[in-house]
Amino acid sequence: MDFLTQLFDTSDFPALWNCGAGWQATPWYGWLHILSDLGIWSAYLAIPCVLGYFILRRKDIPFRTIFLLFGAFILACGTTHLMEALIFWWPAYRLAGVIKLFTAVVSWATVVALIPVVPKVLAMRSPEKLEREIRERTAELTNANETLQAEVRERQRAEGEITRLNRELQSRADELQTILNIVPIGVAIAHDPQCRCITHNPYMSEILNVPAWVNASLTAPPDERPTNFTNYRGGQEVPTSELPMQVACTGVEVRDVELDLVCQGRVPRKMLYHARPLFDRQGQVRGSVGVCLDITARKQAEEALQQSEQRFARFMQHLPGLAWIKDMQGRYVFANDSAARVFRTPRAELYGKTDGDIFPPETAAQFKENDRRALESGAGLSLIETLEHDDGVLRSSLVNKFTMMGSDSQTVLIGGIAIDITDRLQAEEALKEADRRKNEFLATLAHELRNPLAPIRNALHILRMPRVDAATVRRSREMMERQVHHLVRLVDDLLDVSRVMRGNIELRKERVELATVVARAVETAQPLIEAQGHELTVSLPPDSLPLDADPVRLAQVVGNLLTNSAKYTEANGKISLTAEREGTDAVLRVRDTGIGIAPDMLPHIFELFVQADHSSTKAQGGLGIGLTLVKNLVEMHHGSVEAHSAGLGRGSEFVIRLPLMPQEERQRVENDNGEAPHESARSLGHRLLVVDDNRDAADSLAMLLRLQGHEVRVAYDGPAALEVLKGYRPALVFLDIGMPGMDGYELARRLRQQPGLENVRLAALTGWGQQEDRRRTAEAGFDHHLVKPVEPKALELLLADLERAGDSWNPV
What we know:
Blueprint: H1 2-7, H2 21-25, H3 27-57, H4 64-86, H5 93-122, H6 127-182, E1 186-190, E2 198-200, H7 202-208, E3 229-233, E4 236-237, H8 244-248, E5 254-263, E6 269-279, E7 285-294, H9 296-317, E8 322-327, E9 332-335, H10 337-342, H11 347-350, H12 355-358, H13 361-377, E10 381-388, E11 394-405, E12 411-420, H14 422-464, H15 470-502, E13 510-513, H16 514-532, E14 535-539, E15 546-549, H17 551-567, E16 574-582, E17 585-592, H18 615-620, H19 626-636, E18 640-644, E19 652-659, H20 663-666, E20 687-691, H21 695-707, E21 711-715, H22 718-725, E22 732-736, H23 744-752, E23 761-766, H24 771-779, E24 784-787, H25 792-805
Parallel strand pairs: 14-16, 20-21, 20-22, 22-23, 23-24
Antiparallel strand pairs: 1-2, 1-7, 3-4, 3-5, 5-6, 6-7, 8-9, 8-12, 10-11, 11-12, 13-15, 16-17, 17-19, 18-19
Helix pairs in contact: 3-4, 4-5, 14-15, 15-19, 16-17, 17-19, 22-23
């Protein structure tokens, strides 16, 4: 501290201005020193500042220490000059000496620092050499700069290419992301080998029914694991280790795995999964990628197609005929069992073959030509083809051939369906023949009806003539009775054959001797045989031939055969009837010397309405139903009938076989073997009512009843009958069933509702006599069923039964 005080102490020294008169005498000389020193100080102060600035800006300058020492030396020199100027006023000689000492030290430090620098400076290149090196370095720098610029340009180009590739890659990534977002396929990626984190595209989100940000891994940590969907196989939940993406994370590719996906609140769906592992650069599994397809609709379509194919196959197998399909080369690609059987080729061998491989040439040519026509028509072709079936019979089939189109609407197959119409064609021919016979029958029926009507009409005309003697009247009446009986017989035959053909006839079987049946038949046919002058020979065995049969129907059968023989044999011919036992059968033969039967007619002689086309046949009359009735009645007795003839003009023979009654049945004793005598005594008169819209029928029946002593009222319709019944209480009412308006059934119902008429007897008058008709009238409340025309004997029996039923009925 004392040093510093002494250093700045100026009390010991006077100021320089005060050290002599010369300074005061010549002050400008003093100021010269002062200004010079100040000028030097300012320069010495500026030089270090410039050097300091230079050193600070150029930190790479060599010999940096020398520059710093040189700057300190100059600054110290400048400070000594400053002190020289200050001494004129402030005599701090001690401080000035210290500064000069410092300047001397710095100067020698500079000298010392310069000594090692001098060799280095001397070793420095000359300006020319440096200029040359500069030029060389400049050239090198220029080349380097050009190279650098080229590299920069290449780098810029590379950077541009990288930028372009990055943009393209980003574009591809955007496209891929767009594809993943819109593709109707579920895509998922596992980002770790343990498959703990799975991301997915929107479609997978929709499939799994989870948001897009949800981790879809079923092996994720429990707090991240989804719980709203489960996979099943065969009704069993699939373990997570067996799920496709988890399996793929083990390094195994998974393909075509079908699972049932069950999501909460949704219908289970069929899914098809594929998964592949993802590998890192070292070949280690880093995750997996999986895709899934919703194949529910496809499975349903496949199931529907399978069911359709099964239905098609079942339908084709159950077609009532043949079905097949060929390709465009004519090779069979499908055939049902019926076709394979008829083609006599197993289906496995049939497929791939053509018609020429399995059929005779003419048949194959027929089929091939029809296939060609079907292809040309385009709309299908229906025709008739013939083929020998597996039973060896040549059959006709209705064949429909049609084309089948492919997905491009081009014909790819030709199909065919064949229905065997042999029976139908035969039936059509039979129907045509039946129609011809029907027309012939109707013409014959008209002829047969006119035959009796002509004499009846003549007799009626005779009866209207005046002055006709009694004998003529009697003969006319007898002639009318015969013709009416003939008409009734014609109608009865028609009804009989109708009932027999429909199975509505009822046999009243009893034990009867064949001889008895023959006797009744001969009695029936005898008048016609005698009228033709024929010779009838009857030969019966001496032993009994008992039958369990309806004697009336069998007599009708034999009578028809005898009548036919009488009709179709020229006058004075011969007819024989023989009976004999053959084993357990009774055999009856009727032979004649008549016109015979043509060979082509023999198979059809028992058919309905069949008549030989012969002039004499038509002359004798007949409806062509007699032999049909014979055949059916014989078969109803469990027998058979046959016709034989050597040809036209050589007569005919009919043979009937009937089973004899078994031995044990012959011991049965008939309680009633004959007809009880009918009491024909005239009964007491009764009140009767006849209701019929046919006035002639009603009036004639009423006339007949009045002649028998009965009181009879007549009404021609239902309302008129009800009016009559208001004041008339009949014992029996004859009601026509088929009246217009109020028919017989309705009238019977209303009549039963009338007080006092609840128990009145009702007799139905109708032209219908089948069992069903009788049942219906009985259900309607009728007591009797009379078939028009009513036989007088049937009326007598009905009235006699009325008298026996109750004496309380109202006699006249």
